[in-house]
Amino acid sequence: MSNRPNQSYLGKVFLIAWREFRYTALTKGFIFGAVAMPVLMFGVIAVIPAMLSQKSPPLVGTIVVVDPSDTIVPRAKAILETPINKLQLAGEFAKNPPMDRGAQFGAMSDLTGDDQQVISVEWRSEKSLDAVESVKSELAKGSILAGAAITGDMLDPAKDATALALFIPSSLSPKHVRQVSRALQQAVEDERIARSGIDRAMLTRLADQPEPLTTRISPAGSEAKERTELRLLVPGAFMFLLWICVFTSANYLLTTTIEEKSNKVMEVLLAAASPMQLLAGKILGYSMVSAVMLLMYGGLGIAGLSVA
User: Fold this and answer.
1) CATH numbers and ranges of domains, the chain
2) For the whole prediction, is pTM greater than 0.85?
3) What's the chain look like in SS3?
């Protein structure tokens, strides 16, 4: 004969669920954590651009280019000294986004970087390919900023572009490496296009893909502009949010179960309810906790989208 109090099956389940919800979600620690986490996330997101936009270190030194054609140095010098058009750069990244994380971080750094960076670079051209070893020796001594080797086949428009040999000291910052490599890559590309006899402006216009202006037509005949990014972002964000809520609630469930077992509270609860009622009540209670977190974070996200 059972010694458990006479109460309906669902009544005990709801009572246990309310107990779990009350002692988890209605506490100062949970409320502070649930509110502090999104605030902290938004704060970090707001601080990242400020960190990336800090004043860039000056680019000073000598760059030696081993180039038998002696055509790359003037082009690379002009490219390096020309300020970056951030609007154009943002458009290029939007059409062809970088694939790896390092390139993505570099793109963010370029878009938010300092416009007043000091660039004082002297360029030197060596026509003999035998000068590569002397360039490496100068790099090891720290007397030059960087070195590069250009072969004749690399500039031939009838052949595939080969890898550009760039030599840098171990102390050169990643931002400076990107600046130097981009200038040399662009110079090689410009020289190949010039040798092919094709007008670069015309080539750029031909390669430019038109952006589709998509309009959704409803059955009632109303028109609405298609927002593809939002349609892709919202389901992904909701899935990530649901993942956070489930794992957070599961952690709470596991922690409280271990504590109740170690403190002998579990035996007291089992004297008043069956194991199935206890399990169902705990799952229901922490499902309610997940719902609160989902509503809170989802509400903040919807509010942010409406403001934006």
Assistant:
1) 9-50+227-307 (no CATH), 58-207 (3.40.190)
2) no
3) CCCCCCCCHHHHHHHHHHHHHHHHHCCHHHHHHHHHHHHHHHHHHHHHHHHHCCCCCCEEEEEEEECCCCCHHHHHHHHHHCCCCHHHHHHHHHHCCCCCHHHHHHHHHHHHCCCCCCEEEEEEEECCHHHHHHHHHHHHHCCCCEEEECCCHHHCCCCCCCCCEEECCCCCCHHHHHHHHHHHHHHHHHHHHHHHCCCHHHHHHHHCCCCCCCEEECCCCCEEECCHHHHHHHHHHHHHHHHHHHHHHHHHHHHHHHHHHHCCHHHHHHHHCCHHHHHHHHHHHHHHHHHHHHHHHHHHHHHHHHHC
